[in-house]
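Recap from last week: sequence in, structure out.
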Amino acid sequence: MTRVKPEPRARPARNSRRPTAPSSEDRHLSPEDLAARFNMSLSTIYKWNSEGTGPRFMKIGKHVRYKLEDVRAWEDKQYADQAAS
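Predicted structure tokens:
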């Protein structure tokens, strides 16, 4: 009995354009990421959101996200003015 080799399956064409990781400025942080970044509790981050005192945030559906560039801008504003002390 002779075995017949099955025909090889056609491989899907390789897409030469691979998805690229977002640049650091396009990255979005979750509240958990922000809490880890500042070594603070998640409840503090949510308190900032409700008081409007933390970094600018956006809601995507029910999810809160922070643009990294907004977080960095907020961080820059947090420096104490040494002349005032």
